[in-house]
Backbone:
């Protein structure tokens, strides 16, 4: 339960930051009353036209990043549509399973993540999705993986197709900016001060932090899934305590015999704490293997992707060891308080 809960948190955070992490932009320009790219918004072409003329700006791309509904036959689902300049050197579909990204140069062509098969099991290359008002036919020319949001697929298309589907001409959701080496994000922000009420300029590193904060705190993922992790810890500590207590009760005579033979307290402590260490270690290894095996199935079936992060998993192991050691104190105390004379009783 703990590894699944934490895995779903890390999976959601990782998937939500892939645009930032897989692109090569130094900064993003987003709508002024937005805090990060997850919140959408609009940035006018006027800002794009001014930014591209700045001395320190090496390149700039318009990006459409919006939710839309797509249909296949009598079924429909929402997808996160990414409209981008296909000639961009800084952003492109990642982890392509099938297809040639050059096909996206033609209008109404799309690449879509394979998780879409959760809703359209039989979808394949050259199938046509319907979307927009009035409806536009979108031909599937590629399948990707590791590109989803909240259990929904990301769909890639060229900028013009995305703008047509949303009926916008002179705006984009946000701008990705590549800077020259002698020009900083602070310099960019100063040079765009005339638009300070309309936009926010955020570095790529800060953007990742803002996305984490948005999902964990404002969106409430930490609270909701954190409850699952806490429950898992609580249940595991109860199981460990009961297991140790039963083990000590069953082996009480043997343990007390050690005391009668002159074993000191630290020797007995090491035996019981070692038993705790063995139980937790074996359980952790089995739980981690199970979480890794279940990860792709949980990701495809749930609204939140699951990703087992080894650093977080190690932290869980260390915390469990500490709590497990504390739980072993009660059975240890029982052994120390038992009179060795019981071994001579019938």
Residues:
């Amino acid at each position: 339960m703990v590894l699944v809960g934490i895995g779903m948190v890390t999976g959601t955070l990782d998937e939500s930051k892939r645009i930032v992490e897989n692109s090569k932009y130094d900064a993003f320009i987003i709508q002024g009353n937005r805090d990060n790219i997850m919140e959408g918004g609009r940035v006018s072409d006027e800002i794009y036209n001014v930014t591209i003329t700045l001395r320190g700006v090496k390149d700039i791309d318009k990006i459409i990043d919006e939710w839309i509904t797509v249909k296949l036959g009598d079924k429909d689902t929402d997808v996160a549509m990414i409209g981008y300049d296909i000639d961009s050197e800084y952003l492109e579909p990642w982890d392509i399973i099938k297809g040639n990204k050059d096909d996206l140069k033609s209008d109404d062509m799309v690449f879509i993540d394979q998780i879409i098969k959760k809703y359209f099991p039989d979808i394949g290359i050259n199938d046509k999705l319907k979307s927009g008002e009035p409806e536009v036919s979108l031909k599937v020319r590629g399948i990707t993986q590791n590109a989803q949001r909240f259990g929904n697929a990301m769909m890639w298309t060229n900028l013009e197709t995305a703008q047509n589907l949303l009926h916008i001409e002179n705006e984009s959701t946000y701008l990705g900016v590549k800077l020259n080496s002698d020009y900083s994000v602070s310099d960019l922000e100063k040079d765009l001060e005339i638009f300070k009420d309309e936009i926010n300029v955020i570095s790529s590193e800060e953007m990742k932090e803002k996305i984490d904060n948005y999902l964990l705190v404002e969106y409430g993922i930490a609270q909701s899934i954190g409850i699952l992790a806490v429950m898992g810890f609580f249940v595991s500590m109860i199981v460990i305590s009961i297991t140790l207590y039963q083990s000590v009760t069953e082996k009480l005579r043997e343990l007390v015999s050690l005391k009668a033979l002159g074993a000191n307290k630290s020797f007995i402590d090491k035996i019981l704490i070692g038993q705790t260490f063995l139980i937790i270690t074996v359980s952790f290894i089995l739980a981690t293997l199970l979480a890794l095996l279940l990860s792709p199935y949980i990701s495809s079936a749930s609204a939140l992707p699951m990703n087992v992060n080894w650093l977080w998993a190690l932290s869980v192991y260390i915390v469990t060891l500490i709590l497990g050691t504390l739980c072993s104190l009660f059975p240890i105390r029982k052994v120390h308080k038992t009179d060795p004379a019981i071994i001579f009783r019938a």
